[in-house]
Design brief:
By secondary structure, the protein is mainly alpha-helical. The protein is built from 9 helices and no strands. The protein is flat, with a radius of gyration of 20 Å.
């Protein structure tokens, strides 16, 4: 569930603030050193803790599992061939993990709040819908993957590493079906809510920025300035 102030319909941290931090983090990924990376990682975890502590626990466990796998491969295996590809993939995942933490936080927000936040920034309605739907249904498709995996286990069908393309189809076809099903549900929902009406849209949620939002934005600006200063 979304983390809100008690007794109100206002989010503790607004979607616009997280979107701004997400943009800063993406820029920093290309130029940040290890110290800046650790700061982004810690602040990303803090942000997720404020919004959803349950997701933070899963994210922390996943991070340390990835670190352990990366260390084990680097220590006990020769980095070449398939091992080298897996090692590189793990490094990339760890590198973008601060961005992933913020994306997890954004995925907890209500779709209407995301769309109205983007509209307030002057973004077109079509793009606002696309972005909001992406972040809203990102965790849902993770659950779909779990359901598909359990379904394959019941049918005694295992992933065959010697036939990756055929095995990939076992996941791809159900996911495409789920995508079409989700699209139909979304279409009906959007039509019911009058998304096509050319009028000014209002929001049930209080999306006005607070002092906490400005503090997070100031932190993002300072972090970006420090990164650019130390590298250039």
């Amino acid at each position: 569930m979304e983390k809100k102030k008690r007794g109100s319909n206002s989010y503790v941290i607004k979607p616009v603030t997280l979107g701004f931090l997400l943009l800063v983090y993406i820029i920093n990924l290309f130029i940040a050193d290890r110290a800046i990376y650790i700061i982004m990682l810690l602040t990303g975890a803090l942000t997720l803790a404020v919004i959803n502590k349950e997701k933070l626990t899963k994210a922390v466990v996943s991070f340390f599992v990835l670190v352990a796998l990366t260390y084990s491969i680097n220590t006990y295996f020769k980095i070449s061939g398939w091992i080298g590809s897996i090692f590189t993939m793990l490094i990339i995942i760890l590198r973008i993990y601060p961005v992933w933490l913020l994306a997890m936080a954004l995925s907890t927000y209500n779709t209407s709040a995301l769309m109205n936040s983007l509209r307030n920034l002057g973004i077109s309605n079509n793009l606002a819908i696309a972005v909001a739907v992406f972040f809203r249904f990102l965790p849902d498709y993770k659950e779909y993957m779990k359901d598909i995996r359990e379904s394959l286990k019941v049918r005694n069908i295992a992933f065959k590493w010697n036939r990756p393309l055929e095995s990939f189809e076992l996941y791809l076809v159900p996911m495409i079906y789920k995508a079409f099903q989700t699209g139909e549900i979304l279409t009906c929902s959007l039509i019911t809510k009058g998304i096509e009406c050319e009028c000014k849209k209002t929001s049930y949620y209080d999306l006005r920025l607070t002092s906490l939002d400005y503090l997070f934005m100031l932190f993002g600006i300072c972090l970006l300035v420090v990164t650019i200063w130390t590298n250039f």
